[in-house]
Specification:
Elements lengths: L2 H8 L25 H5 L3 H22 L1 H4 L1 H8 L3 H26 L4 H19 L7 H19 L2 H6 L4 H33 L9 H15 L19 H9 L2 H34 L13 H29 L6 H22 L5 H15 L3 H11 L5 H17 L2 H12 L5 H12 L1 H28 L8 E6 L2 E6 L6
């Protein structure tokens, strides 16, 4: 009996087996293109539909995440909180999201991913709906529910890319990942737009949080009816791989220099995007007041116009950035195997000066500010699909969900988990008076951190380029060694045994 068959006997519902009918391929050779469907166990049509459903859910994830940013000034006025407490809204969400990511990474590498995601998204939808009924006297309740939202998102973000990796290889995988990661900037932009406009129409910011829960229930239905679990690594002809212990996975990944350095580079992306995501509409609104373009506002949906404009910019720049990053990377791959990290480095290094100019010019020229934000976000968005592709081809299939989880933990821990709160704390500490001028100026100075962090991130991607060829070859030619303990279900529990004891 094979290892997978033993696991199936122990946990039949959350099985690691494919849902496809028919016997699993046992051949060790790489499948030809026409054999990819048989290898993964999923038809071409069902595979494409799976990617589209995952893309829809990813868009919904980021739409929900940044709906709060679209109505942040209204939340501040409703609860009577300062910039420091406002920053906590994003921080508590990211903290729960990143700390639970390893749990779902472990489960996603071993059990049926479709059911794990379905339960997580259902939970996230219900908690988001509950957060929209928070009364004025209980700001802590809003913080709690935003933290619980991270539980559902962690169950999805760590697992979904690994399903795409098991459906496609090489150029097709890059194309599908680019479609999947289009949803990040597009969903983020829609979060600003929907949040600000729904709050403006309803004259109540609470209604902005009631849009995504219904769409989340639709996502659960689509997951259960459309998505089919593919065989792990089969499309890459990796039938020789076995699940090792979690500690072994972590130890191996910590020695993967391309994974570690690209994760640090992506941490800089998370820091910058997290800061801008929460504070950009508020900053642009304060700039408009200081410039005399808008009167001071203390109640109502004050920053609805700025949220709408910034959201639209985020959608457009996201599409341009992700698509251009993938196209440039594909062309450069014909010349150098280091194309991916070099494109990521160029995106961050080019975004830094434009973000700096956008922040500096905010007080003197609104048009120039929006132009520089457009350029900065376009270059910043070049990283999304490429970073995901790097992780998938430098890590073996049985460790990918764990790798996704660890990347989420570190990039958020040092990135957008603390950056919104840090920007708020620095802004409050620099503010000398309660005037609109100092509210703008202090936030302006604190946001300048983003440009410097982007430069540091570019440096990490340049270092990644030094090791990417070696680490990719090592992952593609990886052969399990006899001293690696693997996880085998035994009497309803898991036990670690040497590979030699279960292989003939």
């Amino acid at each position: 009996m094979s290892l997978s068959e033993q696991a199936s006997d122990v946990v039949p519902f959350f099985s690691d087996e494919s849902e496809a009918e028919g016997p699993e391929e046992q051949g060790g050779g790489a499948p030809r293109p026409q054999e990819e469907e048989e290898a993964s166990g999923v038809s071409k049509v069902r595979a494409l539909m799976t990617v589209l459903v995952l893309c829809y859910i990813n868009l919904l994830n980021y739409m929900d995440r940044f709906t709060v940013a679209g109505v942040l000034p209204d939340i501040e006025h409703f609860f009577g909180i300062n910039d420091e407490k406002s920053g906590l809204l994003q921080t508590v969400f990211i903290c729960s999201y990143m700390f639970l990511a390893p749990v779902f990474g472990y489960l996603g590498d071993r059990y049926n991913r479709k059911y794990i995601m379905s339960v997580g998204i259902l939970f996230w939808s219900l908690v988001t709906l509950a957060s929209s009924y928070t009364p004025k006297e209980h700001f802590w309740a809003l913080l709690l529910t935003r933290g619980l939202v991270g539980v559902g998102e962690a169950s999805y973000s760590t697992i979904a890319p690994t399903i795409i990796a098991d459906l496609y290889v090489k150029g097709k995988r890059t194309n599908m990942l680019s479609i999947f990661y289009f949803a990040i900037p597009v969903g983020s932009g829609l979060g600003y737009i929907v949040g600000s406009q729904v709050g403006n129409i309803a004259h109540d910011w609470h209604w902005a949080l009631r849009v995504t829960p219904g769409l989340g229930l639709v996502a659960v239905v689509l997951l259960l009816l459309v998505v089919q679990e593919p065989r792990r690594g089969a499309i890459e002809a990796r039938t020789d791989l076995h699940h090792t212990s979690w500690l072994t996975d972590v130890q191996v990944l910590s020695k993967n220099r391309s994974f570690v350095l690209s994760t640090l580079g992506f941490t800089a992306v998370a820091f910058v995007t997290g800061s801008l995501a929460l504070w950009a509409p508020t900053f642009l609104f304060r700039a408009a007041v200081v410039n005399g373009e808008r009167p001071p506002c203390f109640e109502g949906n004050c920053a609805s116009t700025e949220s709408l404009i910034f959201g639209t910019i985020t959608v457009v720049t996201g599409v341009l950035g992700v698509s251009s990053g993938v196209m440039i990377s594909r062309k450069l791959r014909t010349r150098t195997a280091r194309a991916d990290p070099l494109v990521c480095a160029a995106g961050l290094l080019l975004s830094a000066p434009f973000l700096y100019l956008a922040i500096v010019f905010a007080q003197s020229s609104t048009v120039a500010t929006y132009i520089f934000i457009f350029l900065g976000e376009t270059f910043l968005s070049m990283n999304w699909a490429i970073v995901a592709d790097i992780l998938l081809y430098v890590v073996v299939p049985t460790r990918r969900a764990t790798a996704e989880a660890l990347q989420i933990v570190f990039s958020h821990l040092l990135g957008d988990a603390g950056s919104p709160y840090l920007i708020g704390v620095v802004s409050d500490s620099l503010q000398q008076t309660d005037s609109f001028l100092w509210q703008f100026r202090s936030l302006q100075l604190s946001l300048l951190l983003c440009a410097f962090v982007a430069v540091i991130g570019g440096g990490f991607f340049l270092l990644t380029a030094l090791f990417i060829e070696h680490d990719r070859n090592r992952a593609e030619n990886y052969v399990p060694t006899g001293d690696e303990p693997i996880v085998v279900p035994k009497s309803g529990r898991s036990t670690r045994v040497p590979v030699s004891s279960v292989l003939i």
